[in-house]
User: What shape does this take?
Amino acid sequence: MATVTCIRNLDWLIAWDAGAGEHRYLRDADLAFAGDTILHVGGRYDGEVAEEIDGRALMAMPGLVNVHSHPTNQALYKGVREELGNPHLYGTGLYDYITLFISDTAGKLAAAEYTYAEMLTSGITTFADLTIPFDGWLDLLARSGLRACAAPMFRSASWKVVDGRTLDYQWDEAAGHRRFEAAVETVEAAEADPCGRLFGMISPAQIDTVEAGLMRESHALAMAKGWPWQVHASQSVVEFYEMTGRHGKTPIQWAADLGVLGPGSSLGHAIFIDEHSWVHWPTHEDLGILAETGTAVAHCPTVFSRYGHQLEDFGRYLRAGVTMGLGTDTFPHNMIEEMRTAMILARAAAQNMRTVTTGEMFHAATVGGAEILRRDDIGRLAPGAKADLVLVDLDEPLMQPVRDPLRSLIYTAADRAIRDVYVGGEKMVENGRSIRLDIADAGRRLQDAQALIAAAVPDRDARCRSLDEVAPMSLPLG
Ligand SMILES: [Zn+2]
Assistant: This one.
C-alpha cells in the first residue's frame, strides 16, 4: 500500500456524512490518506504514518468542483468584456465579440496556464474545461495538477450578428458531425492519459447551434459510456425567443422532447426559463421538467450579473428539486467568490435572505458539482474518496474571528486564506502558490497575447473600429 500521510489535530474539518447526505463540521480531527485516496476522517488515526502534518490553526475542506469554465480564452478578455453587451440583444455580450477577439495557440496556452493556476490557488481541485480543442491542451491539463474534465465543444452552426442588431445562424451540419467525432476522440484520449486525473464530458456547445440529430446522438453516446453531457441552454433572452420561434417551445421543453434530459445531463445556465420575469411566457413548466427528469444546472452567476442578468432564483430551483452545481464560466475563476455572489444574487432575486443558506451553496460547489460530473468520489472528505482537499489558514487575519470558518472564508477572506491544496494526495499548492504552474509568467504572456488580439480588431470589425472604440476604457485617458 502507498505510504500514509496524516494531518493531525485539524482545528476544523468539513467532513462528509454520507448517511445524512450533508457536510458537517468536526473539531480537533485527523485526516489520513494513502496515494490518491482518503483513508480516515475524524478522531485520532492510529495506523502507521509516513508523513505527519500539524493541523492546528487549519481547516481541511473538500476541494471545490467547478462545473463550467472556458479557461483557454476568457482571461484574454479581462479589461475588455466586463461591460460589453449589446442593447439590441437584451444586453448580452455573448454573440457579438466572439469573431472580434481571436487568439493564437500561444495566447490560448497562456490563458489556460494562468487560469489553471488561479483555480488551484483559490481551492478548486476539479473543473470542467469547455473548450474548442487545440494542440497542447490535454498536455497542459495533465501538467496542471488539477483533476480536469475535458469537454471539447462542437456545434452545427456558428453565430453571426447582422448590422449589430440581429442574431443569425450559419449552419454546416456535416462539419458539426466531424467536430463531434473529434470531440469523442479527445475525451477518450483524456480518459487514457497516464496522469490519471483527466476524464471527459460530451458538450454540444449551445442548444441553439446544434441540430436535433446531433443532440440526440451525442447524448445517447454519453449515456452509453457513462460520461456527463452538458449544453449551454436558456442562457439568453435572444436564445429563448429564437427557440420558441423555431420550435414553438422553450429550449428546455425542446430538449425534453428530444429525450436528452435526465440524470447525467446538465444545462449551463438555465437562467431564462419559461417563468423568468423577463420572458413573459405563458407556460411555467421548465423548472418542473428539470426536477422530474433529474437534469442539473451549472450555475455561473458572476458573468451574467455583469450584463444585469440573474437566475430567479437559486433557492427556488433547489426547492423544486433541481441539482445545482456552480461554475466560474469567465473570470475571475474563483469559486469562493462565486459562492458569495451566487448567494447575494439569489437573495436579491428572491427578495428573501432565507432563500439559500451558506451550507446549501457549499453543497452545490462540492457535492452538487460532483454529481453533475458523475463522480461520487470528489467534492467530499470521506474514506474512499479522492484525497482532493484544501487547507485553510485560520491564522489569516481576514479569517478572524473564527467562529464559523466557512462564513469567514466565503464572506470575507476568500482565496487569501487558502494555504495548501492537494489533488489526488499530491500537493499542488503550497503557501498559496501553485507548485507546477507559473502564473506570473503566464500573466506576462497573456498581456502579449491580448495586445495581438487588440491590434487585429479593426481588421475583424465590420465597421473597422479599434478596440478602444468597441470597448471604451472605464476612465478617459490623459
Ligand atoms: Zn459557458
Q: What stands out?
A: The first helix runs from residue 105 to 121. The two ends are 65 Å apart (CA to CA). The pocket of zinc ion is lined by residues 68, 70, 130, 232, 268, 329 (CB under 6 Å). DSSP finds 14 helices and 20 strands in the chain.
